[in-house]
Amino acid sequence: MSGQSDPRGSTFSAAELEFLAEDEMIEIVPNLRIKPLSLICGDFGPFQPQIPSQVPIWLAVALKKRGKCTIRPPDWMSVEKLTQVLEAERDSASSFEALPFHYVEISRLLFDHARDDIPEVYMVRSLIEDIKDVRFHKIGTGLEKLSSRTYAMKLNLSAMEVNVIRPFVTGSLETFYELTAPEIIQESQREEYRRPQTADRGPRRELRR
Fold it and tell me: 67-94, pLDDT tens digit by residue?
């Protein structure tokens, strides 16, 4: 994977992020009986018609392609919920709404493979794109103010957003450390000098019994 080639500023491709997101669980509604599936990652089923079940997204997509189920979009993918998220993102210039870590990849997978299962799919897609744009604008503004190691760690960033800013943040923190390291070392040496020195009284004599 490309993320393993350069630990300092590496990024994952969109396909690699989707691959990771496919392990997220999602609800399906089978339309026929399916025997239990014993897989390396776990056991799923048995599946009964019209009885919802939780499965990994990759399995949901595989069953959907074979016409064996419908996929229920997660609650956060409703028009009502996304509208609230978008309004909250626009209202706050410094905070980010909590969304699934792989919200971008999950929505893309469902748009590609379960479009007919998403109510108001075009509005949902538009809202998600607007949310991404607003969040990226705030990320760009925040990176201009980056001045410590803790700033970026306080944000509810998604996998895709972290992936995009990782090279910049790691590079900035490395530069920050290089510029401040001499001061940190000098301060550490001064603290060491100020510590009271324990007198060396030589070896202790063994007590007589």
Answer: 999 999 999 999 999 999 999 999 988 7
Residues 6+ apart with CB under 8 A from 31: 49, 50, 67, 68, 69, 70
Q: pLDDT per residue over 12-28, tens digit each?
A: 888 999 999 999 999 99
The 3-state secondary structure of the chain, one letter per residue: CHHHCCCCCCCCCHHHHHHHHCCCEEEEEECCCECCEEECCEEECCECCCCCEEEEHHHHHHHHHCCCEEEECCHHHCHHHHHHHHHHHHHCCCCCCCCCCCHHHHHHHHHHHCHHHCCCHHHHHHHHHHHHHHHHHHHHHHHHCCCCCCCHHHCCCCHHHHHHHHHHHHHHHHHHHHHHHHHHHHHHHHHHHHCCCCCCCCCCCCCCC
